[in-house]
Specification:
The structure holds 2 protein chains of 2 kinds. Chain A is built from 24 helices and 51 strands. By secondary structure, chain A is an alpha+beta fold. Among the domains of chain A are: 18-126, 2Fe-2S iron-sulphur cluster binding domain, sarcosine oxidase, alpha subunit, N-terminal domain (Ubiquitin-like (UB roll), Roll); 164-292 and 420-494, 3-Layer(bba) Sandwich (FAD/NAD(P)-binding domain); 297-415, FAD/NAD(P)-binding domain (3-Layer(bba) Sandwich); 510-573, Orthogonal Bundle (Arc Repressor Mutant, subunit A); 901-996, Elongation Factor Tu (Ef-tu), domain 3 (Beta Barrel). In chain A, strands 8, 9, 12, 13, 14, 15 and 28 form a 7-stranded mixed beta sheet that branches. In chain A, a hairpin with a 3-residue loop joins strand 21 (380-387) and strand 22 (391-398). The N and C termini of chain A lie far apart (95 Å). Chain B is an alpha+beta fold. Chain B has one domain: Folate-binding fold, CATH 3.30.2270. Chain B is globular, with a radius of gyration of 15 Å. The chains are: A alpha+beta, B alpha+beta. The interface between A and B is medium-sized, with 26 and 26 residues.
């Protein structure tokens, strides 16, 4: 037998296999089908945790997802340590190892429990009052200490080795909750032929049928009927049934997030199985069948281990075959706890007494309890519980005062009534309405295409629930476009029914008391705390919530919100609806980061783009850098070179002989159509109408505000065809910018735009020997300077494949950019490389590209410009068509600020000490002796060591820079001030003779 | 995640396919170079930023790639209607805007 408290013949796990497990290192026996909670209870273990603030001993309150107390850590291995697992939800597997949390050195003796004695100092809002002074101590003393002491559980310190799956799904009808109501609704919808999804958070369907022994449907026990109905639904091709799946969030337009726990219940899940699966479901109609949650009674020391909800004790007995005690007391304000007492009594457990706050209730369950010989006390209250690590007694008093009587017990079952689970309804932005008669909030005004059925809708009784749910399921299917239902409604032969109960503190925990009567177990909020919050001026329920933290723990106040609200309302002297309910927010229960992240981690976090020539560069040992999503060859170290040595060698090599560079990542857009030139005129500052086919021009694109947006060389292939290049990072936004204007401002222009970035691989061949390398491989293009001058483009063939051959230069050397279809990129590169080897050419990367262009003063948009730089600021006024009537940015350029004197202009900087390389981003001042804060007049935008110049070079944006030629400026750095001289932007071959060299 | 109806595809598609492109019905002058400072300020810098109904541009980025206009409630996030670029600002909105979105 698995545990001394397992009752032979009781429950549904009679045939189950044994499962061994451990808790805090102690070995126990349970059975498969147990939760960790039921298995511990079967072994008589109630003490499983310490509370958040006062470190009070805690046991199990519930048997489900609403559990606030029984949070444990489950450890599979060093990397798989899951904190804050609700023991009432964790299914048992053979070998499960769990540990208690929030205690030191041990669960039974916890030093932190001193907080319980010192509790007068830890009342509501104590954070705000106690740690106010001195101000500096907050950051250095209080906050670190509080952070160390606060929190439940310990985060795992290794990367999560599990993987998480994700699915999108669409359906006609999504049914959330798989109790009697959800199953009935799903049956009706499914029988109509609609596509149906049914989800429930438990391992087994049935909801409250798990413990309601009085339910009989279609001639069977309720739980057995539920299993049969689920089997039937699973067999239907239009139905998807998901167990262990929690709907955690209800978003706009019937979009629901669900998490399916795929393998947490398995002993050896295996590497192929995801741990969890995120379902993102769009449903035409949603049926909410989320049930109701029982409330506890609010009385002194109601948190002692062994005190739990009546329905939980019933679940442990009727489903798991476990008695929660041997001598059990019951404290109730409604009928449902009687059923628990009756079930336990029939199973042979002694019921010490039922204490019922009501004066003279009548009904069949009361009669039955009395007939079984159970002592019943009406009009009485339990004013306190005895015991510490386990409840030992309950002290009973007439509710209006009088003599006390202490009854020894080892467990107390409580029921203050049932709270409809309107969480998902409220998340859907529906408005709840308060039913004054039954004292509960139920769905009022709907905001989305959903319907609530059963207990979550305030519908009492099994028969009424199934009637309502079956009709709603059929209607949902019909509204979603399905035909009328063909099935038959399940027939309820017998069911249980109760409502009412009480809200707020019970007698003995009233306004004049200072007892610890817990409202919110997880955040240690007592009835007194809520009254205090109101007395201190928190009159809105949202303020009361934040001041006391009631309902703000991971259980989201499933058991505490209504009690807290009632106590606040009573203290305020207002009716409950006027005080209002706090907002329900997603997630319904905690969701792992893993399930939200899914596969999007590591290499799959963001797409990686690689050029056609990437494998060659990799084989050559290139070091890569990330440029947006692209991997670009940064430099090609040879024989143990460091970056500087490699870049110096590459820089010199290009200017001495030639270099090959993979420029494939450059953005490329083809602008085609009869109005292509007109479109280019409007999108770029330059004139294009007169550019002859076969020629190229350096284009500047502005935003409407007049600032530089992008730049690039544009080749005119034909009167109606332009090959536009953009910066690597700018390609998508330039395309979007062009499309925006073409579609919305200039739709009269007959133009098509195509992104051709991925279609063409680009091999830049630059240097004095570049033509010698290319020429032997080219067909159909005259390579002479007369036929193919600088800034021209021809179409022909290279190595037998089509090419768009640009004569252009981003190095200041004679240069070409060979565009070939991407599929041929690496093959052509390899032929060019072999040819280049004959001349001693080098391969160079992006760093050398940057240095060489800086030597020539060519700007990089986004490095030398920052979105506040005009063409004039950058020394590119020549590229702005002065005679043009319109282009994007033409008016912005005339704004007063943009034509004002003293704007920052791009200039060159030479350090007085040529060996000193400035730091990019360093600030520039005119007078280093001025008081701090100094007036900063500019900053360094590009800075490199130039082996070709034999010195450092830099570009900078400096106020009135072009009027400062020859001036000495200063760059203050932590290790001293660096003197610099303002120069022109061209550091190498100032006359530009090498373009034809 | 919202569903947005693309007036070109004539289909409701998930929000992920779309990109917002700012307020709609702000026409670029045909005589841009001749605009006064005040007019340019109104055109380029000033936006209505309403609490409630906004007319704005969207692009069906990962679909047909067309720009279109939408009427959206900034309080509820609900799309009241969408229409093609170049069409006039609707003078009347559908009565029950919530219903339009849901159906």
């Amino acid at each position: 037998m698995s545990g001394a408290f397992r009752i032979p013949g009781a429950g549904r796990l009679k045939q189950a296999k044994a499962a061994r497990f451990s808790f805090d290192g102690q070995a126990y026996a349970g059975v498969e089908g147990d939760t960790l909670a039921s298995a511990l209870l079967a072994n008589g273990v109630h003490l499983v945790g310490r509370s958040f603030k006062y470190h009070r001993p805690r046991g199990f309150l519930s048997a489900g997802a609403e559990e606030p107390n029984a949070l444990v850590q489950v450890t599979r291995d060093a990397a798989r340590k899951t904190p804050n697992v609700r023991a009432t939800v964790q299914e048992l597997y053979d070998g499960l190892a769990a540990q208690s949390q929030n205690r030191w050195p041990s669960l039974a003796f916890d030093v932190g429990a001193v907080n319980d004695i010192a509790s007068p100092f830890f009342s509501a809002g104590f954070y705000y009052k106690t740690f106010m002074w001195p101000k500096a101590a907050w950051k250095n003393l209080y906050e670190p200490k509080i952070r160390a002491a606060a929190g439940l559980g310990v985060s795992p310190d290794q990367p999560d080795p599990d993987h998480y799956a994700a699915r999108f799904a669409h359906c006609d009808v999504l049914v959330l909750g798989g109790g009697a109501a959800g199953i009935a609704a799903a049956l009706a919808a499914a029988e109509s032929g609609a596509s149906v999804m049914l989800a429930d958070e438990q391992a087994e369907f049935g909801g409250s049928l798990r413990f309601e022994t009085g339910a009989r449907i279609d001639g069977q026990d309720g739980f057995a009927w539920a299993q049969g109905a689920i089997a039937k639904l699973k067999a239907m091709s239009n139905v998807r049934v998901l167990s262990r799946t929690t709907a955690f969030g209800y978003y706009a337009q019937n979009f629901v997030g669900l998490v399916e726990r795929v393998s947490d219940h398995l002993q050896n899940p295996g590497r192929d199985l995801a741990r969890e699966r995120l379902w993102q479901v769009r449903a035409k109609r949603v049926v909410l069948a989320t049930g109701a949650i029982e409330r506890h009674m609010v009385f002194a020391d109601n948190d002692r281990p062994g005190i739990m909800l009546a329905s939980a004790a019933r679940t442990y007995l009727n489903h798991y075959g476990v008695a929660v005690g041997k001598n059990v007391g019951v404290y109730t304000a409604n009928d449902s706890a009687y059923a628990a007492a009756i079930d336990l009594k029939k199973a042979g457990v002694n019921i010490a007494a039922i204490v019922d706050l009501r004066d003279n209730p009548t009904g069949p369950v009361i009669d039955e309890a009395r007939a079984l010989g159970i002592e019943i006390n009406f009009g009485r209250a339990v004013v306190r519980a005895g015991g510490k690590l386990r409840v030992t007694s309950m002290t009973v008093q007439p509710k209006n005062g009088g003599g006390e009587r202490t009854i020894p017990v080892d467990a107390i079952l409580m029921s203050a009534g049932w709270t409809p689970s309107v969480h998902l309804f409220s998340q859907s932005r529906g408005k709840v309405a308060f039913n004054d008669e039954t004292k509960r909030f139920v769905p009022g005004t709907y905001a989305q295409d959903c319907v609530s059925v059963g207990a979550c809708n305030g519908t009492d009784g099994l028969s009424a629930t199934i009637d309502e749910a079956y009709a709603a399921g059929a209607k949902a299917a019909r509204d979603a476009g399905a035909k009328a239902a063909k099935g038959t409604k399940p027939k309820v032969d017998a069911g249980e029914s109760w409502s009412r109960g009480m809200l707020g503190a019970a007698p003995g925990a009233g306004p004049d008391t200072t007892v610890k009567a817990f409202v919110d177990f997880q955040n240690d909020v007592t009835a007194k705390d809520i009254r205090q919050a109101v007395h201190e001026g928190m009159h809105s329920i949202e303020h009361v919530k934040r001041f006391t933290t009631n309902g703000m723990a991971t259980d989201q106040g499933k058991t505490s919100n209504m009690h807290g609200l009632a106590i606040a309302a009573e203290t305020l002297g207002k009716p409950i609806p006027q005080v209002g309910l706090t907002t329900f927010r997603a997630p319904y229960t905690p969701v792992t980061f893993g399930s939200i992240v899914g596969h999007a981690r590591g290499p799959l976090f963001d797409p990686t783009r690689k050029t056609a020539i990437h494998p060659w560069a990799e084989a050559q040992g290139a070091v890569f850098e990330d440029v947006g999503q692209w991997k670009r060859a940064w430099y090609f170290p040879k024989g143990g070179e460091d970056m500087h040595a490699a870049v110096d060698r590459e820089c010199v090599g290009v200017r001495k002989t030639a270099g090959l560079f993979d420029a494939s990542t450059l953005g490329k857009i083809e602008v085609v159509g009869p109005d292509a030139a007109k479109f280019m005129e409007l999108l770029y500052t330059n004139p294009w109408e007169k550019l002859e086919p076969g020629r190229c021009r350096y284009g500047i694109m502005l935003r409407e505000d007049g600032f530089i947006y992008d730049d690039g060389v544009v080749g005119r292939l034909a009167p109606d065809r332009f090959h536009v290049t953009t910066t690597t990072g700018g390609a998508p936004r330039v395309m979007n910018h062009m499309e925006d204007y073409l579609q919305t401002e200039f739709p009269h222009l007959n133009v098509w735009l195509s992104s051709i970035t991925e279609q063409w691989a680009v091999i830049a061949v630059q240097g004095p020997k570049s033509r010698d390398i290319i020429a032997p491989l080219v067909e159909g293009i005259d390579m002479s300077d007369e036929a193919l001058p600088h800034m021209s483009v021809r179409e022909g063939k290279i190595c037998g494949v089509p090419t768009r051959l640009f004569r252009m230069s981003f190095t200041g050397e004679r240069g070409f950019e060979v565009n070939v279809p991407a599929d041929y990129g690496q093959a052509v590169w390899e032929v060019l490389w072999a040819e280049g080897q004959k001349h001693g050419a080098v391969a160079y990367g992006t760093e050398t590209m940057h240095v060489l262009r800086a030597e020539k003063g060519y700007i990089i948009v986004g490095q030398d410009t920052d979105g506040t730089v005009t063409p004039n600021d950058a020394g590119l006024d020549w590229a702005v068509g002065k005679k043009k009537a319109d282009f994007v940015g033409i008016r912005g350029l005339a704004r007063p600020d943009l034509v004002a004197k003293g704007r920052k202009q791009l200039v060159g900087l030479k350090t007085k000490d040529p060996k000193v390389v400035l730091e990019e981003g360093a600030q520039i001042v005119a007078d280093p002796k001025q008081a701090i804060p100094m007036k900063m007049i500019g900053h360094v935008t590009s800075s490199y060591w130039s082996e070709n110049c034999g010195r450092s070079i830099a570009l900078a944006l400096v106020a009135g820079g072009r009027d400062r030629m020859g001036e000495t400026l200063y760059v203050p750095m932590p290790n001293g001030v660096i003197e610099v001289e303002v120069t022109g932007m061209v550091f190498f071959d100032e006359k530009g003779e090498r373009l034809n060299g | 995640m919202l569903l947005i109806r693309c007036p070109y595809c004539e289909e409701e598609r998930p929000e992920l396919e779309f990109r917002n492109a700012g307020e709609a019905h702000i026409a670029r002058s045909t005589n841009m170079a001749g605009e006064s400072d005040d007019d340019f300020e109104k055109f380029f810098f000033i936006r209505s930023n309403p609490k409630g109904v906004i007319y704005e541009r969207w692009r069906h980025m990962h679909g047909c790639a067309r720009f279109f206009n939408a009427v959206r409630d900034t309080v509820t996030d609900k799309f009241i209607m969408t229409y093609k670029a170049g069409e006039p600002k609707p003078s009347k909105l559908p009565k029950n805007s919530n219903e339009v979105v849901a159906k």
